[in-house]
């Protein structure tokens, strides 16, 4: 619509030895301006969008709350850590494609054929520092969730960058932070679904290709229905 947007990319880190890129949009850009960043502050954020496509990153929304140097014990502890240790550390940037948190990077993917009950028990007892796991189960689609417990609608699709398929940030006006340019936007399925077998049930998220196979209709049909 021709509106002018403002953004600022900031890298944040903590005692975990990891860092992540955060994109601040519009009015929130002024909260972390250059004069603030030069002091290397502690920044508390609530309600940011977290994405895990091609590397993990965060982006502010219209509802995001930001506080610089909050009066919290955790913030004071973080300042002490930064002054004594953090400022000289080398961090693992989780926003870089193919980078995982320490303890998981480079581990092979383990695929297991299980019932739903076996899968849930395996996840409960999983070593979070070990290899990544995927599961193959045979079950039946019970239902697709379209309304949350609070009564609010749960959308079955999201608007994504046509180039990298990453979810577009609210208020981005067609600018993809991953591609760092204006892009075309398209709808992609994301279904919150319940599956069952003879042993248990599980809530799983079905993304575009799998959701299309389940529903058998192009996502554009639902976009048009919503617009009318």
Automatic annotation (TrEMBL):
A molecular function (GO) term: DNA binding
Keywords: DNA-binding, Ribonucleoprotein, Ribosomal protein
Location of the Replication protein A OB domain: 3-69
Record's GO cellular component terms: ribosome
Domain of life (superkingdom): Eukaryota
Any Pfam family hit: REPA_OB_2
Replication factor A C-terminal domain segment(s): 156-224
PANTHER family: OS03G0429900 PROTEIN
Name this polypeptide is given: 60S acidic ribosomal protein P1
Organism lineage string: Eukaryota, Sar, Alveolata, Perkinsozoa, Perkinsea
């Amino acid at each position: 619509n021709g509106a002018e947007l403002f953004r600022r990319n900031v890298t944040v880190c903590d005692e975990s030895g990891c860092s992540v890129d955060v994109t601040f949009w519009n009015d929130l850009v002024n909260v972390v301006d250059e004069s603030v960043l030069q002091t290397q502050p502690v920044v508390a954020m609530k309600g940011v969008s977290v994405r895990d496509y091609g590397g993990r990153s965060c982006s502010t929304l219209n509802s995001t709350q930001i506080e610089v140097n909050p009066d919290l014990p955790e913030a004071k502890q973080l300042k002490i850590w930064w002054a004594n240790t953090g400022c000289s550390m080398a961090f693992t940037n989780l926003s870089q494609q193919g980078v995982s948190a320490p303890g998981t990077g480079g581990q092979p993917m383990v695929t297991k054929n299980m019932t739903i009950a076996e899968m849930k028990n395996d996840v409960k007892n999983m070593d979070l520092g070990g290899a990544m796991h995927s599961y193959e189960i045979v079950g039946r689609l019970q239902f697709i969730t379209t309304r949350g417990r609070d009564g609010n609608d749960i959308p079955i699709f999201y608007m994504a960058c046509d180039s990298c398929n990453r979810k577009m940030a609210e208020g981005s006006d067609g600018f993809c932070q991953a591609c760092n340019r204006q892009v075309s936007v398209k709808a992609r399925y994301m279904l919150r679904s319940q599956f069952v077998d003879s042993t248990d049930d599980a809530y799983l998220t079905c993304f575009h290709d799998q959701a299309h196979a389940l529903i058998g209709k192009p996502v554009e049909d639902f976009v048009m229905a919503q617009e009318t």
